[in-house]
Amino acid sequence: MRIVIVGGVAAGMSAASRAMRQNPEADVVVFERGEYISYGACGLPYVLGGDVDSFDDLIARTPGQMRSRGIGVRLRHEVTGVDAKAATVTVVDHDSGRSAVEPYDKLLLATGVSAIRPDWATTDLGGVHVLRDIPDGQAIESSLKDASAHGKGRAVIVGGGYIGLELAETLHCRGLSVVIVEKAPEVAGRMLDRDYQQRVRAELEGNGVEIRCGTSVEGLTGKDGRVTGVQTDHGLIRADVVIVAVGVRPNTGLARVAGARVGKTGAVAVNTRQETAVEGVYSAGDNTESLHRVTRRKVHIPLGLTANRMGRVAGVNMAGGDATFPGVVGSSIFKTFSLGAARTGLTQTEADELGLRAVSVDVSSTDHAGYYATAKPIYVRLTAEHGTGRLLGAQLVCNNHESVKRVDVIAALLHGRGKVQDLFEMDLSYAPPFSGVWDVLLVAADRLS
Ligand code: FAD
Q1: Does ligand 1 lie within 6 Å of residue 286's CB atom?
Q2: Is the beta carbon of 154 within 6 A of some atom in ligand 1?
Q3: How far is the CA of 132 from the centre of ligand 1 (A)?
Q4: Which residue intervals define the domain Pyridine nucleotide-disulphide oxidoreductase dimerisation in the entry (predicted)?
Q5: Class of residue 295 by CB neighbours under 10 A (exposed 0-12, middle 13-18, buried 19+)
Q6: Contact in structure between 246 and 235 (CB atoms under 8 Å)
Q7: Most buried one in 42, 61, 398, 427, CB count within 10 A?
Q8: Dihedral sign for Cα atoms in the order 244, 245, 248, 254
Q9: Which helix or strand (DSSP H or E) is residue 15 part of?
């Protein structure tokens, strides 16, 4: 049994480990075109910000550790073709320049996503970056050192999604003045409803980040090979460093060549066992779509837990076991400065767009008992289906960033198609340093029921 895995980060390495555990006799080989495997890309902003000491700390398992478990790892090996009829892949070794044809019994495409680089961002100018992997992080680190060597620099982040917002804090803490340029009317993308986006924006502006929404980038200016500015439809913004964080695109090229179906979401379509439409070919991770358990629609929400879980399911199945991926409920969370923002399920805006009869309640309270010294205001929007009381989603924002992690209570209920009354009846933990006796989620459920 030869299992070939393309891509060696979250989905690929989870699959490799699980496949070996399921069938220790299997010959498992991972081809990774980059120089690193098995690392937490989610930690990249925190290395740049100094909360994590080095990029190496993000590496969960080295190639040596994986090989000692019997997993073949080939770095700087890019899979450039798939012949699903012959059950082979073509692999180019970027060190020797040689290409080889490798057979498989089961093939996993765990190729992730690529950062979108609009035409204006395709440039040789130094100081212009995307952030997807460790080499991108190292390149940003070196630009930040250059910028600080020339005094207080200025960073322009193009894109106000969660990666842009995490980086705004990072770059500010590194002593740069930070401008976020966002085409949409607000930051935080489609993650939150408008008024919750505005709370995020207020936090950034309160910390001195300049935000220019409703602004499109048209080009870059440069001098002596380095970027000097960002040209927008509202004028030129001086810049020493530019981060392009305008979204990602699933890497579906190999899946298409193999004959797999790509869904309307733009990501690879699979069944619950992570099998594509092509016999023996699986897909998992950021390149793959999943089922949204609230809407029962296919979605592409590229996040870390989803990638690890899909990889695990694919690994078990490729090695002869039987596992299924349960789908997602659209949970995500981020921090910028002291503010945490989280959502799960649907926002009111999303529910409206889907034509659902949704109703929301807003509660502002404190995250700890009101009299407790570190209590901070917390804002919760709870959304449910009108008439049935079925929970549809929640959004939380709080300046004690860890307090928004209580969103997971709602995520758990959404998995079981829970109702507002189910939430209200829950025996949630209480002590003054953690919440009021009636936690803000219970207050929201009470008001909505
Ligand atoms: P990837 O990590 O993209 O790995 C795919 C690998 O496949 C790459 O190494 C690539 O080189 C390789 N590859 C592609 N094509 C080929 C080929 N033809 N041949 C060989 N190799 C190939 N998620 C969260 O849930 N929470 C967070 O807080 C969070 N923060 C993030 C912050 C940043 C800055 C970034 C970049 C991501 C963050 N994510 C977060 C997303 C999370 O990191 C991803 O969901 C996860 O890494 C996806 O893993 P993956 O294995 O599917 O894809």
Answers
A1: yes
A2: no
A3: 7
A4: 337-437
A5: middle
A6: no
A7: 398
A8: positive
A9: helix 10-22
Nearest to 211 by CA among 181, 170, 191: 181
Burial class (CB in 10 A: 0-12, 13-18, 19+), 152: exposed
Q: Sorting pLDDT into bands at 50, 70 and 90, what band is 359?
A: very high
Nearest residue by C-alpha to atom 15 in ligand 1: 111
335 lines ligand 1 (CB under 6 A): no
Q: How close is the Cα of 90 to the center of ligand 1, in Å?
A: 22
DSSP letters of 314-333?
Answer: HHHHHTT-------B---EE
**Confidence label for 189 from pLDDT (cuts 50, 70 and 90):** confident
Q: Say whether pLDDT at 246 is over 80.
A: yes
Q: Which two tokens stand for residue 236?
A: 């030129």
Which residues belong to the active site? 42
pLDDT tens column, 169-188:
999 999 999 999 999 999 99
Tell me which residue has its CA closest to atom 14 in ligand 1: 111
Kind of pairing between the strands at 377-385 and 358-366 = antiparallel
- CA of 112 from ligand 1 middle (Å) equals 5
Is any atom of ligand 1 closer than 6 Å to the C-beta of 12?
Answer: yes
**25-81 pLDDT tens trace:** 999 999 999 999 999 999 999 999 999 999 999 999 999 999 999 999 999 999 999
User: Which residues, including other chains, have CB under 8 Å from residue 324's CB and lie 6 or more apart?
Assistant: 272, 273, 313
pLDDT value of position 345? 98
Q: How confident is the model at residue 152 (pLDDT cuts 50, 70, 90)?
A: confident
Distance 286 CA to ligand 1 centre (A): 7
Percent of the chain at pLDDT > 70 equals 100
- Residue showing tokens 């004028």: 235
Whether the CB of 132 sits within 6 Å of ligand 1: yes
